[in-house]
Specification:
The chain is α/β, with parallel strands linked by helices. The chain has a single domain, classed as Rossmann fold. It is built from six helices and eight strands, in the order βαβαβαβαβαβαββ. α6 links the parallel β6 and β7. α1 packs across α6 and α4 runs parallel beside α5. The structure holds NADP nicotinamide-adenine-dinucleotide phosphate.
Length: 232
């Protein structure tokens, strides 16, 4: 079988970077994307020793940027097998719902929810054509109603909405062998997670990759952590 092709958003650092590295080690072709060209190219050059890594710029909040990336993938590869919607921002510990700056909340939704939605809309047609696709929305326990308290309102609402999107998309594409899941990576040592976090980026990438490799008829429309289903 042809080598599968994966694409990771926000992959110049953190969990996205680790996900690219582990996918390369498994032998996939990987398209590393980043909104900052210099940071993306630096990551690409560090990771090329692990396998076939391509780079393209992508700002998930920008429709033109998403379309240019889609055209690049279509022309260069003619297919995409795995889409990892990892890019995310704004763990807003400084907000309560009562006092949150709504422009900031809107920007958070624009990246964490609409960015992933836009990417899914761009790449699902290619996946449908080949009757194969795995979409992983990198979510968070902060977006689980079952775990939700009052903190980080903008971030939590954006991830709860991303989880709803996972269910909607999974339903839309279920007859096309496209599986769509949300994954919580756990609390991970990155710029977002901070140095006190117990998990390495490699550990954070583990269930993301597991969800990207699910067999036909595997989980879809689920919320996953540590390779198990968790409560929404
Ligand atoms: N770390 C944790 O403990 C934790 C826990 C649960 C869930 N998560 C989720 O895991 C994912 C990765 O988080 P992380 O900890 O690796 O965070 P991070 O280190 O802050 O990295 C975030 C990445 O997203 C990129 N990004 C932000 N806005 C973007 C945009 N508009 N277009 C494209 N890329 C954009 C950043 O690019 P720049 O370098 O250009 O800013 C960066 O590459 C996020 O969705 C996060 O919510 C993390």
């Amino acid at each position: 079988m042809e080598q599968r092709i994966a694409l990771v958003t926000g992959a110049n650092r953190g969990i996205g970077y680790a996900t690219v590295k582990e996918l390369l080690k498994k032998g996939y072709k990987v398209i590393l994307t980043a909104r900052n060209e210099a940071a993306g190219k630096k990551a690409q050059s560090e990771l090329q020793k692990y396998g076939d890594v391509y780079f393209h710029t992508l700002d998930v909040t920008n429709a033109k940027s998403t379309n240019e990336l889609k055209d690049f993938v279509e022309q260069e590869f003619g297919r995409l097998d795995m889409l990892i919607n990892n890019a995310g921002i704004n763990y807003d510990t400084w907000h309560t719902a009562e006092n949150a700056d709504l422009e900031e909340v809107q920007a958070t939704l624009n990246t964490n929810l609409i960015g992933a939605w836009r990417m899914a809309q761009a790449f699902i047609p290619m996946m449908k054509q080949q009757k194969y696709g795995r979409i992983v929305n990198v979510s968070s326990g902060a977006g689980a109603f079952a775990e939700m308290g009052g903190n980080t309102p903008g971030y939590s609402v954006s991830k709860a909405a991303l989880n709803a999107l996972t269910i909607k998309l999974a339903s839309d594409v279920k007859s096309n062998n496209i599986l769509v899941n949300s994954v919580c990576p756990g609390w991970v040592r990155t710029d977002m997670g901070g140095i006190a976090a117990p998990r390495s980026p490699k550990k954070g990438a583990e269930t993301i990759i597991w969800a990207a490799e699910l067999p036909n008829n595997g989980h879809s429309g689920k919320f996953l952590r540590d390779m198990k289903e968790i409560a929404w």
